[in-house]
Amino acid sequence: MGEGVVSYTYELTTNTDGDDTFDSFAVTITDQDGDSSTGDLVIDIVDDVPTARDDWASGSENAPVTVDALGNDTPGADGVDLATQVVVVDGTLTGAGTVVYNGDGSFTYTPAPGEEGTVSFDYEITDGDGDPSIATVTITLPEDSAPDLSASGGNEVDEAALGARPGEPEGSNAASDGEHTSGTIEVATGNDGIGSLVIDNVDVTGGGTVISDKGVLTVSVSGGSYSYSYELTDNTLADPDSDSFDIVLTDSDGDSASTTLVIDIIDDAPEARDDADTVPAGEYGPIGGNVLANDTQGADGTDVTGFSGAGGSAAAGGTVQGAYGTLTLNADGSYSYTRDPGTPADVSDSFPYTITDGDGDTSDAVLI
After folding, report:
1. Overall average pLDDT of the 257-262 stretch
2. 246: which of 67, 165, 341, 345 lies 20 to 30 Å off by Cα?
3. Rounded to whole angstroms, how far apart are CA atoms 331 and 268?
4. Burial of 196 (0-12, 13-18, 19+ CB in 10 A)
5. In what order do the strands lie in the sheet with 132-141?
6. Residue 331 lies in domain
């Protein structure tokens, strides 16, 4: 009687479908006198399953993020068909944007406008014999940048520089350029683009003109930089006064910032100057002239509002008794003086008067 051991080696040469598989061989042993016995050699085959691994990524503001999710996964011996065996697990997306599978092992997440923070979703891979594996993709989105807005530069104009307008005299320094000013509008939108720039409900994103009751604001844009010029076109009746413009900047995802551009207006005040007139010797008049002829009326326009003499005072258009005669002085500056009979020669009669402009500024002088 003999005994022995038969050894063997086995090499798996291809993958199998399913988890419960084996390879079987029938074995027959025959002794020297012809007796035999049979049995089976069974090799159990342990299925190789895929392994999906979690992934992390970060993105730019308001920009799609692509993640190569399968780059760190193990497909296993059965393989994973990238076109058909990779899916997003329904209901796992935590963000407000959208995720799509690109058919090549990568996913692209497109954030909702202004979305920030962390979003995630699960995906599943399945190998050739149906084994699944699930992992999570986590994406960090940067903080939504807020726009910033300011206006700087020239913020003052002068009524004195105004030219003559219908019904209004020119300013006291009409030859100057003081009715103009200019500056810049600084805009910043971070990682976003400019959605719109609106001034007093006028869209000036590409430049434009905004007209107020006092002046004209012109906005220009060059290379993404904004500038403005302002022209005062009419006098104002307040002292002090200003022209203001509300500016609103909106970025590409809807965030906004606002500021107000204020243009201060320097009031043009009148300046009255003394006047002199003469009644010819031996005559009694009347003589006349205009006290405003040598005065500076200013851009607001000027009227005579009152005057006085030795005998009292009166509003414009009235008559006042002086020391040697009577004076009638009108709002437009015109006057008439009549010498009293019997008054001496070589004497002077004086009449102080006041002029007032359109916004209440006053100045005093004397008619002699």
Report:
1. 96
2. 165
3. 20
4. middle
5. 55-58, 132-141, 117-126, 86-88
6. 286-367
- pTM tops 0.85, yes or no: no
Burial call 88-111: b when 16+ CB within 10 Å, e when fewer: beeeebebebebebeeebbbebbb
> For tokens 């551009």, what's the residue?
261
Q: State phi, psi for 246 to the nearest 5 degrees.
A: -85, 125
Closest CA to 157 of 171, 145, 147, 169: 171
| Residue 155 CB contacts under 8 Å (≥ 6 apart), including other chains | 181, 183, 261, 262, 263, 264
Domain boundary among 231, 266, 301: 266
Say if residue 152 is in the same domain as residue 255: yes
Query: Helix (H) and strand (E) counts for the chain?
Result: 0, 27
What domain count does the chain have?
3
Band the pLDDT of 320: cuts 50, 70, 90. Answer: very high
198 three-state secondary structure: strand
3-state secondary structure 231-295: EECCCCCCCCEEEEEEEEEEECCCCEEEEEEEEEEECCCCECCCECCCCCCCCCCCEEEECCCCC
CA pair distance 326, 343, nearest whole angstrom? 12
User: Are both 201 and 261 inside the same structural domain?
Assistant: yes
Based on the fold, state whether residues 290 and 334 are members of the same structural domain.
yes
Check whether the bond before 240 is cis (ω within 30° of 0). Answer: yes
Residue 296 is assigned to a structural domain of this protein:
yes
Between 211 and 36, the higher pLDDT residue:
211
Report the run of H or E that residue 357 belongs to, with start and end.
Answer: strand 351-357
